[in-house]
Design brief:
Helix content is 23%, strand content 30%. It is an alpha+beta fold and 71 residues long.
């Protein structure tokens, strides 16, 4: 079954070298698990209403962390 993480992170200033989330990920503020995409979208929507997200200082990411098994 596919699970999702909804992650609220601080936006890192652009340093001119590009972004590499694997080498230097943004600082996480909040991480919430969800069992369906619909639930993850609702949580992400709530995070997007926060003032820091609306001001561009934080961002919301929805990440699939598992895959459904066929059969």
């Amino acid at each position: 079954m596919t699970r999702f993480l909804v992650v609220l992170t601080d936006v890192r200033p652009f340093d001119g070298h590009g972004r590499n989330e694997r080498a230097c990920p943004e600082r996480r503020r909040q991480v919430v698990g969800a069992s369906s995409r619909e639930a993850a979208d609702r949580i992400a929507g709530a995070f997007m209403a926060l003032g820091m997200v609306r001001a561009g200082r934080q961002r919301v990411k929805v990440i699939a962390v598992g895959r459904r098994r066929e059969g």
